[in-house]
Amino acid sequence: MPSPSGAVGRSGGGTICGVDGAVFDAARGDEARLVLDRHSRDGIGVADELDGEFAVACFDAHSRRLVLARDPFGVRPLFYTIHDGVCYFASEVKAILEALPVTPDVNEAAVNDVLSFGYVPHPETMFAGVFAVRPGSALEIGDGIREHVYWRYGFGGEAAALPADAVTPAQGRDERGRQFMEILASAVEKRAPGGSRRGSYLSGGVDSTAVCVMLSRQEGVDAPAISIGFDEAEFDELPDAEEAARHLGLRHFSERVHASDVTPQLLEELVRMCDAPFEDTSAIPTGAAARLAAKHVDVVLTGDGPDQLLGGSRRHAVALRQARSRRPLATLLRRSGFRHAVRRLPVAAATNGLASRIIRKLYRDSLTIAQRTSEPRIAPLLVQRELYSDGFQRTTRQLPPWRNILPVMERASDRHPLEQCLHYDVHFYLQDCLIPKVERACSARGLECRLPFLDRGLTAFASALPLSDRIDGKSQKDILRRSLRPALPEGFLDRGKRGFAIPRDEWLGGSLKEFVLDTLTSRRSLERGYFSTRGLRALLERYYGQGVRYYGASGGLLVTLVTLELWHRSFMDRK
Fold first, then answer.
1. Strand-pair partners of 87
2. Apex CA 444: angle with CA 442 and CA 449, to 5°?
3. What are the boundaries of each domain within the chain?
4. Which residues are CB-neighbours of 184 under 8 A, at least 6 positions away?
5. pLDDT, tens digit, for every residue of 529-555?
6. How big is the CA angle at 310 (ends 304 and 315), to the nearest 5 degrees?
């Protein structure tokens, strides 16, 4: 199999090993030897002592056992399948496809997953029988498959114990902030492979700026910072990034993504790179950032993670506010089972009429905060009824999109509603959407990404923080903001959050409009059997005719539908 993939094969004896990205005290050249030593001692527990972002494969030819292990948050991808008694594994699904004698079928349940969430929750993939090794786990594959979970994110130190030499968040507010920044500094420092040129992404937001603060202190004023902007002023954060880089004395490299850069060919390339459809079109500027960074550095640090660990999105603030308020009508709706009734009513849920808006509002109120976390958001359930064909609706009822989510959410069932939201975001949105977007864009450019906010010590520390350190009034990610404030210009942290927003609707309504319509209404698309032709045409009419954006005809749903069709053409139509 082509690198970086591998398949179990025959060997005269001994153990063979592959390792990607683990953080060791020893030089990079000794990583495989250290992993082999630990594998011979610990077997499937080989991952327990590894740190950083890694994927490991060890095959013992004597026992005929293969161990596949992945870092705690799944930054380094690792996939596998069993075909005719042989295990095929790789860091990309497309490498497995090249080695298999036949292309796997479509995982139809995953089609509904990606239309529900914008990604496929692990361990499944878009391909039937091809799975991801779960983050924080190791698989031993021999006569059967045995899974060893060596690390799991939780709250209050219950499921994610602090390392023995780590500080604890038991002190006062200011002391917790100081400790948080000390652990972050350590996390940045140890993500410095020997001999590599190191830099950081800098969006102008709080998270990437915090990484740049640490990088400037460790590397000095010559550390590179990489930024991407847009021509559309309301989406462009380059001025903020330039101000931060200037204040910190960093070398700043920047480019803008122009509307003319966003072509059908680019979408096809992204689908091929991801091995899957996607909704998150920030993959476009992420790819541009990786291309720019690869010109200047070998390793790029990213600011991913604080939103999911500390409550940085608007959803988190709303969840906290609603958890603290008494809403008699919502309580009554939940107890009455209203949500089950609405799913059976013949309502035009995707229209913009008053009755439809009222029904949607009552439906949302009938869900608990925890239920909302796993509620389909790209094509909401009420929209799926209109969009999906009868046959595809039967498939989705048999294999609902939350089948892999609910067992994980059960582990946080006794936690505060805000923590339940964060639990979902850490385990699925972060691991299955945000991290793959960054990692694959970097890998495609020969660039290594490292995520200091996902350091095991830092995430364990964050998991035990009180709610007020996450959201304090209107201050979200409060412990990070207040600890970072002395290092930045006055007022820099008080600007509104944009979160790498992109001019998606402008692109879809401009240069991509004809391509979107032609692709989704093509004979190939309509004959796949997923959608009602009437429902799909109604959705397109609402988006381009009536201007409905948020519910039922959003830009996110259109991107997901288009990339789903491109995925079929790239991977399935060539079988």
1. 82
2. 20
3. 6-149, 173-311+420-494
4. 210, 211, 214, 452, 453, 455, 458
5. 999 999 999 899 989 987 656 577 889
6. 95
